[in-house]
Amino acid sequence: MSGSFFFIKFILRRIAAAVVIVLGLTAVLFFLQSISHSNPVHAMLGAGATPSAIAAEKVKLGLDHPVFVQYFNYLYGLIHGNLGMSYRTRRPVASDLATYLPATLELAFYSLLLAVVLGLLLGVLSAGEFRGTGVLRAILIAGASTPQFLLAIGGLLIFYGKLNLLPATGRIGIANPPSGPTGFYTIDGILNGNFGVTIDAFKYLLLPSFSVAIGPAVSIGRVLRGSLIEAISLYFVKTANSKGLSRVRVLTVHALRNSLGPALSMTGLQAGLMFAGVVVIEDVFAWPGIGYYTAQSIPSGDFPAIAGVTLVLGVGYVIINTIVDLAQLFADPRLRHLEMANVKTKKPLLGLSANQG
Questions:
Q1: How far from 37 is each of 47, 70, 90, 301, 311, CA to CA, in Å?
Q2: What positions does the domain ABC transmembrane type-1 occupy (predicted)?
Q3: Cβ count near 61 (within 10 Å)
Q4: What domain range is 179 assigned to?
Q5: DSSP-derived 3-state class of residue 85
């Protein structure tokens, strides 16, 4: 089997698995909506609606059809970007998510980037037993052992309340920041030639991103450390050591690539869990993302909004794990050859089910 054909087949398998998982998620969300106590008709029309108005609204919403027909109508709407109407904002959920999602994506992106950097530092420095590693490890583990909301509140008390170094809430302090093209203020500021926007956006990102990243960083670092220690005992690494190469070069050049597989799997898992952390942190920092949107929707029983956020996060998790599977194959040639051999016997090593388990 040629390499290009293998990758095409691998990607197609991942897409098929992703579609099955997303369909399962939509079925669960539809079932939960159907058994919930929220009445979409009363939510749209109000408690004082007349029986004729309620009957007309049921026909409009398709609630007069059998359940399986309603589900297929629900799927048809999802395919066309229709996530329903928010009871609270009285706007399409898709429009609300388009407004709130860029803020969450920016926070999640920098949180994941920070988690990977800290995890690499922790893993490499711990495996190499460099001086000062114990201090870094103690700080990260202490932070990871603290609940995220408590860590966020502590950061606010110290860096905003006492030192007045970082802002407390919100996403940016500049009026009328650029609205495009990416939706990331840190990038849009550069693209629009306004570096003050980028600097200000980073100031607002520091506390929430660190609060989200420290837990995943420790998990990634521990897995990477174990893989590096195992790789150090391999013959080619011992050969590099015998040539008198520095510990940093041996670890980063010779051992690191062969140790990335488990760390990448952990990164994919932590990226999915990170979205749950973002929901909490956004509420603490009044960050205008989908977590903040969800926190406002829950008290009002806005099920379409909650279901829309859940679906978006679920699809994002599936996509992230698919990317991690591909990254593992590129990072470790041994895994690629094993996967190709197992595909021939129809026993693939990698897959969404393995990552998500």
A1: 14, 17, 19, 9, 20
A2: 101-324
A3: 16
A4: 99-301
A5: strand
Q: How far apart are CA 271 and CA 281, in angstroms?
A: 15
Entry pTM: 0.78
- Domain assignment present for residue 43? The answer is no
Q: Which stretches of the chain drop beneath a pLDDT of 50?
A: 352-357
Let me know if residue 207 belongs to a domain: yes
Alpha carbon 24 to its chain's center: 19
Ranges assigned E (strand) in the chain:
none
Q: What is the pLDDT of residues 27-77, one digit of tens each?
A: 888 887 777 666 666 666 666 677 777 777 777 766 677 778 888 888 888
List the beta bridge partners of residue 207.
none
Residue type, 307: A
Find out whether 148 and 291 touch, Cβ atoms under 8 Å. Answer: no
**Residues ≥6 apart with Cβ < 8 Å to 354:** 265
Instruction: State residue 355's pLDDT score.
Output: 43
* Cβ 237 vs Cβ 254: under 8 Å: yes
DSSP summary character for residue 162: I
The separation between the first and the last C-alpha atoms of the chain, rounded to the nearest angstrom, is 29
Q: What is the pLDDT of residue 12?
A: 81
CA distances from 287 to 51, 100, 323 (A): 41, 9, 27
Widest pairwise Cα distance in the chain: 86
- Per the domain annotation, does 327 fall within a domain? no
- Report phi then psi at 165, rounded to 5: -95, -30
- Calculated CA dihedral for residues 55, 60, 61, 63, nearest 10 degrees: 50
Q: What is the CATH number of the domain that holds 176?
A: 1.10.3720.10
What distances in angstroms separate CA 200 from CA 130, 187, 194, 307, one per listed residue?
A: 35, 12, 10, 33
Domains in the chain, number: 1
Can you say how many angstroms the Cα of residue 227 is from the centroid of all Cα atoms in its chain? 24
> By CB neighbour count within 10 A (0-12 exposed, 13-18 middle, 19+ buried), where does 51 fall?
exposed
